[in-house]
Amino acid sequence: LDADELRLLEENILSEGVVINPIITWNSVIVDGHNRYRVLKTHPELTWRPDYVSLSNEDAAKEWIIKNALGKRNLTPNQWDELAGRLYNARKEKRGGLKNKTKDAKTGQFATNPQKGDLWETPKRTSAQLAKELGVSHRKVESAGEFVDGLDAAEKVIPGIKVRDDLGGRSFYKFKVSGTLIESGALYRSR
C-alpha cells in the first residue's frame, strides 16, 4: 500500500476499534495481513486475532499468497498480470517446463534442468488448468507469463525498473528488451 492507502486502512481500523480481518500465518510467517500488522504495531491497544493456514511447503505457501492476492478487487491490470504470470511460470516449472538450460562443465554441452514432479500428474496444459481456476482464457494466462518474463528481463537490464499503470489500455506492456535497450514509454525507473 502507498502512504495514503495505509493511512486510510489505519483510520478504518481505528474507527472499528478492532482488526476485523485476521492476520493469516503459515509456520509463524505472515502470509496475509502485513499492512494490518503494521497498523497493530503502532496501536497495541487494538484487538485482533491470528488465523493459521496449513500448507505442505514454501512453494504451496507462495501459491496461496498469489492466489489470495489475485482475489482482491483493487488490483490494477498490470498487478493482476504480474501475479497470474508468476503463478503460471511457477507451475510450469513444477511440470518440467523450465526454459533455462545448464551447461555441463565437463562436456560443454547444454542440458535442460531436471523436471520437477511427475509430468503425468497434471494432464491438462498448465495454462488451461490455471485459466479455468482464474476464470480467464488460457491465452490471457500465457500472456501474463510473457509479461512477467519481460519484467524480469527488464529488471536485469535496468535494476529498479517498473511498469507504469497510468497509461490506460492494455497494450502498453508489450515492450521489447534487446541487449541494453528497452523500447517503451510504459517503463520507468523507480526512485
Polypeptide structure, described:
The chain is α+β, with helices and mostly antiparallel strands and 191 residues long. The longest helix has 20 residues, at 138-157. A hairpin with a 2-residue loop joins strand 1 (23-26) and strand 2 (29-32). It has six helices and nine strands.
Count of DSSP H/I helices: 6
What best-fitting shape do the alpha-carbon axes yield? elongated
**Mean model confidence by pLDDT:** 75
Largest sheet: 3 strands, mixed
> Based on helices, strands and strand pairing, what is the structural class?
alpha+beta
Lateral arrangement of strands in the main beta sheet: 2-1-3
Number of strands: 9
Helix content: 40-55%
Sequence of secondary-structure elements: HEEHEHHEEHHEEEE
Which regions are unreliable across 5 or more consecutive residues at pLDDT < 50?
167-191
Question: Strand fraction band?
Answer: 15-25%
Give a short synopsis of this structure.
The chain is an alpha+beta fold and 191 residues long. 43% of the residues lie in helices and 15% in strands.
Key traits:
about 190 residues, alpha+beta, two-stranded antiparallel sheet, 9 strands, about 45% helix, about 15% strand, disordered C terminus
Topology summary:
Elements: H1 3-16, E1 23-26, E2 29-32, H2 34-42, E3 50-52, H3 58-70, H4 77-94, E4 101-103, E5 110-112, H5 126-134, H6 138-157, E6 161-163, E7 176-178, E8 181-183, E9 187-189
